[in-house]
Design goal:
By secondary structure, this protein is an all-alpha fold. It is built from twelve helices and two strands; from the N terminus they run ααααααααααββαα. It folds into two domains: 4-40; 46-270. A hairpin with a 2-residue loop joins β1 and β2 (204-205).
């Protein structure tokens, strides 16, 4: 380690260029200051945070049987939806509208589930809010048999597919969707007390994930409501053609699991 006295002594003894000696002295001090700072401050890389997210996800699934069951139910629902969509053979606008709205909702649900497993509640709810609006649009389109309207609206202003408008026309199902939308909206908003409450947990700041297991359970469970809504719409669309969907037995089995899981939900969303 280079000390100040050594360089001061060199400065007085050296008869050459004094500026060189001073320059060496201050460069040595600067290098020492940088080394001390590097040793005292943690080096945090974004890739480290990404690793932490997946570590939290894995730990959450190990420690919570409820979360594991929730993820399995969502996964089975999505697998079923993909198979129904692949085999679906409706005419014209009906086929187009269902594929458009179902896939738009499905993409958001997949992302929201991943965020939920990390315990990133506000981020998951923000995506879920988009998904529930797409699911409501799909439900109304099927229930009202307005497939041509849906295709036209999707390419334009979506005035007739506005969330508030379609849920008012869905009666009790619409009431439930508005309740769900309201529960998550306050937390999903960018700068609210509910959203900021998830910034920290007992384990410290939540940077893209949380070690608070209840965060992951709450956010992930809410996605089950969305996938079940898509399946309900697809089943209803097939019933309109006077034939049942090919996977009717599987739909009933998943519906039973969905109801049973709701009885175990640790938060108010199942009530």
């Amino acid at each position: 380690m280079i000390s100040a006295p050594e360089y001061l002594l060199g400065l007085f003894l050296y008869v050459g260029d004094v500026k060189v000696a001073l320059g060496q002295f201050f460069r040595a001090l600067f290098r020492r200051a940088k080394n001390d700072a590097a040793q005292s401050e943690p080096v945090l890389k974004l890739t480290d945070l990404f690793d932490s997210q997946d570590q939290v996800l894995a730990r959450n699934l190990i420690e919570s049987t409820f979360l594991t069951a929730t993820l399995q139910l969502i996964s089975d629902y999505i697998f079923l939806i993909v198979r129904i969509l692949a085999k679906m053979r409706f005419e014209g606008n009906k086929q187009t509208a269902i594929l458009l709205l179902a896939n738009h909702a499905l993409s958001s649900i997949i992302v929201a589930t991943r965020l939920g497993l990390w315990g990133a509640v506000p981020e998951s709810f923000a995506i879920q809010r988009r998904a529930i609006e797409s699911v409501a649009q799909l439900l109304w389109t099927v229930e009202s048999n307005r497939y041509e309207t849906a295709v036209y609206e999707a390419a334009n202003a979506l005035e007739k597919l506005d969330f508030d408008e379609v849920t008012r026309r869905l009666d009790s199902m619409g009431d439930e969707m508005r309740r769900y939308h309201g529960l998550i909206s306050e937390c999903a908003a960018h700068s609210t007390a509910s959203s900021m409450a998830f910034t920290f947990s007992n384990f410290g700041p939540n940077w893209g994930c949380s070690r608070d297991l209840s965060f992951a359970e709450t956010a992930t469970y809410c996605c089950t409501f969305l996938v079940s809504g898509i399946v309900h719409s697809l089943s209803k669309a097939h019933a309109q053609e006077n034939h049942s969907v090919e996977f009717e037995k599987e739909i009933q089995e998943l519906s039973g699991r969905f109801s049973a899981l709701g009885n175990q939900c640790p938060r108010e969303f199942a009530q």
